[in-house]
Design brief:
Blueprint: H1 8-25, H2 43-54, H3 61-74, E1 81-83, H4 85-96, E2 98-101, E3 104-109, E4 112-118, H5 123-127, E5 134-138, E6 141-142, H6 150-157, E7 164-171, E8 176-183, E9 185-188, E10 192-197, E11 202-207, H7 214-227, E12 232-236, H8 245-255, E13 261-267, E14 272-276, E15 288-292, H9 299-309, E16 314-317, E17 325-331, E18 337-346, H10 361-373, E19 390-392, E20 398-400, E21 409-410, H11 420-425, H12 429-441, H13 451-460, H14 463-474, H15 485-501, H16 503-510, H17 515-521
Parallel strand pairs: 11-12, 12-15, 15-16, 16-21
Antiparallel strand pairs: 1-18, 2-9, 3-4, 4-5, 5-6, 5-7, 7-8, 10-11, 13-14, 13-18, 17-18, 19-20
Helix pairs in contact: 1-10, 7-8, 8-9, 12-15, 13-15, 15-16
Length: about 525
């Protein structure tokens, strides 16, 4: 059965929106202690205890509590959420910026743990694990042929720093099994994907989320770019759903002169907390560009709003998500947590960029899909803003509140004579799956190639484009790429580069024809 392509953008929007939800959940200034002060609030506890001890059938009261908490929070706003213990640990590891493990990127391929690429200088790389290897056993635990859930699989590979693990590997290229002993170590989870010079004087930094280490990573890369001659800076927060607001504020501080307002928050009591730039800014001069799209949210919008409202730089792209709520976390003894909205934040001109959520959570998150349908992603004139929510910067530029950051320079969704379905498909995981399978069939085809030779090879061949078209048809997607050949070939080459050479190589290819980058460099 063929998949109706008119529904494809909805599917892919849902996938990308998860990052927005995640970022929204983690956009908070700190944790809170919670103690019930009203005896009437013990009613719920009494009821649960009564069910637990007296109800005629066996009942999992934990699941009832979780469902109750979910239902309560659903009556509030889309970003007040309950996070089960099983998810909380993974979320916090992501935002901490590291975890303890063996250091390998893997893909579940035909019920086997297939290594995409070991992390550079990690335990797996040091032990000699290679791309394409299958991990058959972790100690004596069988990992293949079992359809293990991801969290269960991770638990087998993680452990304490310095703890030993023996992996049984099948190396397809040599058709043999190997037993390798590793010591688990701290593995960094980078929030800066790439930093490179796009021209002699234009630096580029891609931030995928705002974690505990983001500001530190940003400063290290900014310093390196400045040493190489960067005078202008592009910060890419497309598809960045947010994270810790302090990290975004710290980066904004590096760009803004002393005493300029970065952001302020207002809570239920009307208390206003303002945050200003300090004297420490290391990039207060030179052109600044912030790249945003419909999945840039929360902390990403704080950074973009601070730059736009202070007339410090140019916002390029498409209207951002529109998340202007601040959460605080309450941790529970079982490892779960609630993140509750405790304030709204406002950009320096005083605008709230929070989009409406009065119609419920489902309508709130589907609003991004509506932008696709009403043409906003293709035409700036289709962006609906309210004249009553106009604000002015110090230099008189009009900016808007009420639903995301509207860019100064609009750049439509990159379709290259194809359609939006193709554009979003190319940013989904299906491209990575296809590329891994192609490499798995004949990894030796790229053996010994320099990056320049690899690029030449990819430019000259149509084989992977044709195979990808067949792959898409074979997966039930009725998408024809004839009108988008150059776009598809670029994303395929970039993904091959990522799996063969690393993340930086992906961006070196993808950015060469990037529409937003072109809009900046031609200025």
């Amino acid at each position: 059965m063929k998949f109706n392509t008119k529904y494809l953008p909805l599917l892919l929007f849902s996938t990308l929106a998860f990052g927005v939800v995640l970022g929204g959940m983690l956009h908070f200034p700190g944790r809170a202690d919670f103690t019930a002060k009203n005896n009437s609030k013990t009613k719920l506890n009494t009821l649960i205890d009564f069910i637990d001890t007296e109800y005629v059938d066996a009942v999992d009261t934990d699941s009832i509590v979780n469902l109750t908490v979910d239902n309560i929070l659903a009556q509030l706003d889309p970003h007040s959420v309950y996070v089960p213990a099983s998810e909380q640990q993974q979320v916090m590891e992501s935002m901490k910026g590291n975890f303890v493990g063996i250091g390998v990127n893997f893909y579940m391929y035909k019920d086997s743990v297939a290594v995409i690429k070991p992390v550079e200088n990690g335990p797996s790389a040091k032990a000699g694990i290679k791309s394409g290897d299958r991990i058959l056993y972790a100690d004596k635990t069988k990992l293949f042929g079992r359809k293990l859930p991801t969290d269960s699989l991770f638990s087998k590979l993680k452990g304490a720093v310095g703890s030993n693990i023996e992996l049984t590997i099948y190396r397809k290229s040599e058709r043999k099994k190997l037993k390798l002993k590793l010591k688990r170590d701290v593995i960094p989870l980078k929030s800066v994907d790439a930093a490179l010079l796009l021209s002699n004087a234009t630096g580029y930094i891609k931030i995928n989320r705002f974690a505990e280490t983001t500001y530190k990573e940003f400063m290290q890369n900014l310093s390196a770019l400045k040493q190489r001659g960067a005078k202008s800076l592009i910060i890419d927060v497309r598809d960045n759903g947010g994270g810790y607001m302090e990290e975004a504020i710290a980066i904004a501080d590096e760009l803004l002169p002393n005493k300029q307002l970065i952001v302020f928050t207002k809570n239920k009591k009307g208390t206003i907390d303002k945050t200003f730039a300090t004297q420490k800014g290391s990039f207060e001069k030179g052109n600044v560009f912030i790249l945003i799209n419909e999945n840039s949210a929360s902390a990403s919008e704080i950074l973009a709003g601070a730059v736009q409202d202070n007339d410090r730089g140019t916002i390029v792209g498409r209207r951002s998500f529109g998340k202007g709520l601040v959460q605080r976390e309450i941790d529970f003894a079982d490892g779960s947590a609630v993140r509750l909205t405790v304030a709204r934040y406002y950009t320096p001109t005083g605008r709230s960029i929070q989009k409406p959520y009065s119609k419920g959570n489902e309508a709130y998150f589907k609003e991004s899909e509506t932008r696709f349908e009403n043409g906003e992603l293709y035409q700036k004139d289709s962006i609906k803003v309210s004249d009553t929510l106009q604000f002015k910067t110090k230099k008189g530029k009009i900016v808007y509140g009420g639903g995301g950051i509207v860019p100064d320079v609009f750049v439509p969704l990159e379709v290259e004579h194809g359609n939006g379905s193709t554009a979003y498909l190319l940013q989904s995981g299906i491209v990575g799956n296809f590329v891994f399978e192609q490499l798995d069939k004949n990894r030796s085809a790229f053996k010994g190639l320099t990056f320049a030779q690899f690029q030449s090879k990819m430019n000259q061949t149509e084989a992977y484009f044709n195979s990808f078209q067949k792959f898409i048809f074979g997966n039930g997607l009725d998408l024809k790429f004839g009108k988008s050949k150059s776009l598809v070939k670029r994303y395929l080459a970039a993904e091959f580069a990522r799996q063969l050479y690393g993340e930086r190589s992906y961006y070196e290819i993808i950015l060469k024809e990037d529409a937003m980058i072109k809009a900046i460099l031609k200025k």
